[in-house]
Amino acid sequence: MTTITRTIFSLFVISFFLLAINIPHTLAKPRYNRTVEKYEIPDVTLINQNGKNVSLVEYLDTEKPVILEFIFATCTTICPILSIGFTNLQKQLGPEAANVRLVSISIDPEYDTPEVMKTYLQRYEAQPGWDFLTGSISDINKSMRAFDAYVSDKMGHRPLIFLRSPKEKTWVRIDGLMSGKELKSEYLRLK
User: Fold this and answer.
1) pLDDT at 2 over 60
2) For labelling alongside 137, which of 42, 112, 152, 171 has CA 20 to 30 A away?
3) Residue 113 class from Cβ within 10 Å (0-12 exposed, 13-18 middle, 19+ buried)?
4) In the chain, where are the structural domains located?
5) What secondary structure letter does DSSP report for 132?
6) For all residues of the chain together, what is the average pLDDT?
7) What distance in Å separates the CA atoms of residue 25 and residue 13, rounded to the nearest whole number?
C-alpha cells in the first residue's frame, strides 16, 4: 500500500468509526416515556424522615420545582437507580439544589419508618431539600393512585418520576429509567 492509500484507508476507518458511534444515539429508542399529566393531589398527612407530619397537598404546593418518586428503602432494583439520580442531580445543581423540592414517597410504609428513611437518605448523601415520606397504608395508596402509580405489590412497581414547575398545574411524568444527565435536562425544561 502506498502512503496515500493508507491515509485514505485510515480516514475511511476513522470516519466509519465516528459514524458508528453516533448511530446508536440517533436511532436508539428513548429509555423512558415522557408525558404531561394533570393529577389531583390527595388531602393526606404523611410523615417525613424526621417524624414530622406533612400535609401532602400543602407540601407539594410550593414555589419551588418539585421532583417526586415512589420508592422503598429495601428495594435492590430500580429504587437505588432512582435515588442515585436524585443524588447526582443535587450534586450537579450545587447551591441551586436548595431551590428544588425532591420528594421520595415510600411504597412500603410498614417497614419504612422515619429512622429507616433517615438512614436511607444518609446512604445516598441527600442534601437539604430532599425528603422521604411515609404514612398509613391507606394514605400511601391514595398518593400512588393519585399519580396513577398504584401497585398492589411493591415488587411490581415501575420506575416513575414526576416533575412539576411551580408555574404549572400539570406534571411531567417520566416512565422508565433515565440517566442523571437526562434528569437534569428534564429539570431544566421546567424552567
Assistant:
1) no
2) 171
3) middle
4) 1-30, 32-190
5) E
6) 87
7) 19
Lowest mean pLDDT among 25-39, 107-121, 174-188: 25-39
SS (H, E, C) 58-118: HHHCCCCCEEEEEECCCCCCHHHHHHHHHHHHHHHHHHHHHHCEEEEEECCCCCCCHHHHH
Q: Which residues pair with 7 in a beta bridge?
A: none
Secondary structure letter of residue 154 according to DSSP: G
CATH architecture of the domain covering 32-190: 3-Layer(aba) Sandwich (3.40)
For residue 87, the one-letter residue type is: T
**CB-side neighbour CA atoms (13 Å) of 174:** 24
The whole-angstrom separation of Cα 112 and Cα 103 is 14
Cα–Cα distance measured from residue 169 to residue 37, given in angstroms and rounded to the nearest whole number: 9
**Residues 63-100 as b or e (16 or more Cβ within 10 Å = b):** eebbbbbbbbbebeebbeebbebbbbbbeebeeebeeb
Residue with cell 438512614: 119
Using alpha carbons only, what angle is made at residue 177 by residues 188 and 166, rounded to the nearest 5 degrees? Answer: 30
Question: Are the C-beta atoms of 104 and 133 separated by less than 8 Å?
Answer: yes
What are 1's three cell numbers?
500500500
